[in-house]
Amino acid sequence: MPPKARRSTMSKKGAAMDADALARLKRLTGKSTLILTHYGRKSGKPHEVKIWFVVDGDKVFIGTANVEHQWVRNVQKNPRIKLSVGGEKFEAQARFLDDPAERNRALAAAGRKYWIYWPVFALGKIFIAIGLMRNRTGAFEVTLVA
Q: Which among 78, 109, 118 has a CA at the least distance from the CA of 94?
């Protein structure tokens, strides 16, 4: 019997998303966190961080409240990452969302999933609007690869 062909979908920037891996990840969307393995931008050594994630349709997003965290800077420099959640492991590529509309879509999806934290999110937006805090939020779109 021939091996099963891998299905893929295309992300906005044209990268092929492994549809089988996406289906596996969608089954785990009820989990609140995953382990993201990223690689040092100078050393190349693997590092892990526990982080929130969102699957929104055929998109996978990872957000941050502070784009100056070391893991964010590492992933911006080396977008090859690994995700571990619910006993599943995924190879992936991350793309930092520079476009405000894309970033806002990702952060809105996170707000829907983690709605219990809405008061904290709202307070942060107020502090940013009145100049008490700088907006350091950011997000990545993650493409699962075979």
A: 78
Over the stretch 59-88, which tens digit does the pLDDT of each residue have?
899 988 788 899 999 999 999 999 999 999
Q: What is the CATH number of the domain that holds 110?
A: 2.30.110.10
The number of folded domains in the chain is: 1
**Integer distance in angstroms from the first to the last C-alpha of the chain?**
21
Find, among 56, 60, 83, the residue nearest to 71 by Cα. 83
H-type helices in 13-99, by residue range?
19-26, 70-77
CA distance linking residue 74 with residue 58, whole number of Å: 25
Instruction: Decide: 146 and 18 in contact? Cβ < 8 Å.
Output: yes
Whether pTM > 0.90 for this model: the answer is no
